[in-house]
Task: inverse folding
């Protein structure tokens, strides 16, 4: 199978080449192992096998002895990969000492920050680790010409490369059933399996919306604090993206303050929501908005200094996504149309008039070519989202 280049790989190799240690986080099956294999490390240790994990759990200091011995043998500082480091968070103490003494250089991977947070070590290595994130494919990495394939099947690498549609569906359901419903549920210490499964369904259905924890609690039959904890687990396991609103305005007093949550992959979202392939244009437009949001979020991580927000007045206009960079805003509206018109930019224009640090805006749609809608608002294809970051 041909390797598909990842945009984050250049940043990863740069940090490794200058001698930095890296923490690479990403949800399951986003391609972390494949990516770090290309580094040709001197030692790779996966903490997934129970026997390996239990060995280091019993005696974390074994790691220091092994790596010190390797450094002595090589007569240089080795590059060591530790896969799924959150499974033995106690190793972070050993890693701090090894990094401080320049005994070794590390690339650590993990699919959850939850156990690191619970152990109080998520910030144990400030200045010692460069934090990076690996997401599912963005459009430039592995593109569909048909947006519906993105909407229905998502862009997890292992599922993207599967050619048969039925096989893709089997793999998506397996991910939800074996990982989300079992492993993620165990992270949440959920005793009522049914409530968590129903929560995943509603999380899929409400993905991309402003979440009301109390409304969901009434639907599912658990407390609103439990719903909040479920979302925290999904966020820690990198399964949902939390997007915060812009709440400051000189003219509007009712800007929405609740966050949006988006499931990290649209194929996983559809299976969680138990939605099929027959969707109304309105529903397709809602999910298309999430696709654009995910692309912007993933691109913003590559830019490091860009945040993705949204803007909504419950009694007035709203803008689906707003990029915030160096104190400046770029509003982005999403429309399920291939024929963009000036009316589609109406809320973008309102935003531009209210925020003087916003100089230009975009409407992302299905147009085959860019269209200038207003002097400072351009409609672009979903395939050209990277232009917004130029």
Result:
């Amino acid at each position: 199978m041909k390797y598909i280049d990842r945009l984050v790989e250049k940043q990863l190799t740069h940090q490794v080449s200058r001698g930095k240690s890296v923490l690479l986080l990403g949800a399951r099956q986003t391609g972390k192992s494949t990516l770090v294999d290309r580094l040709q490390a001197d030692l790779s240790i996966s903490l997934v096998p129970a026997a390996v994990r239990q060995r280091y759990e019993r005696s974390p200091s074994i790691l220091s002895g092994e790596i010190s011995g390797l450094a002595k043998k090589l007569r240089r500082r080795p590059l060591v990969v530790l896969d799924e480091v959150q499974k033995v968070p106690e190793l972070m103490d050993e890693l701090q000492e090894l990094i401080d003494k320049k005994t070794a250089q590390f690339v650590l991977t993990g699919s959850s920050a939850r156990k690191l947070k619970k152990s109080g070590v998520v910030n144990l290595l400030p200045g010692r680790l460069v934090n990076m994130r690996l997401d599912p494919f963005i459009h430039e990495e592995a593109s569909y010409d048909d947006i519906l394939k993105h909407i229905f099947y998502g862009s997890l690498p292992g599922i993207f490369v599967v050619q048969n549609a039925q096989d893709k569906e089997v793999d998506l359901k397996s991910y939800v059933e074996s990982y989300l419903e079992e492993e993620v549920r165990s992270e949440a210490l959920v005793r009522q399996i049914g409530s968590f499964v129903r929560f995943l369904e509603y999380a899929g259905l409400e993905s991309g919306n402003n979440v009301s924890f109390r409304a969901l609690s009434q639907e599912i039959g658990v407390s609103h604090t439990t719903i909040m904890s479920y979302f925290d687990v999904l966020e820690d396991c990198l399964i949902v993206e939390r997007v915060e609103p812009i709440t400051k305005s000189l003219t509007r007093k009712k800007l929405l303050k609740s966050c949006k949550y988006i499931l990290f992959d649209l194929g996983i979202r559809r299976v969680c929501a138990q939605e099929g392939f027959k969707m109304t244009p309105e529903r397709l437009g809602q999910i298309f908005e999430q696709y654009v949001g995910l692309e912007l979020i993933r691109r913003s991580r590559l830019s490091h200094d860009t945040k993705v927000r949204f803007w909504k007045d419950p009694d007035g206009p709203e803008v689906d996504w707003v990029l915030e960079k160096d104190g400046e805003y770029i509003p982005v509206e999403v429309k399920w149309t291939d024929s963009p018109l000036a009316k589609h930019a109406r809320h973008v224009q309102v935003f531009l008039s209210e925020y003087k640090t916003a100089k230009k805006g975009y409407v992302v749609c299905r147009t085959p070519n860019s269209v200038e809608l207003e002097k400072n608002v351009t409609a672009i294809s979903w395939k050209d989202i990277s232009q917004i970051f130029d």
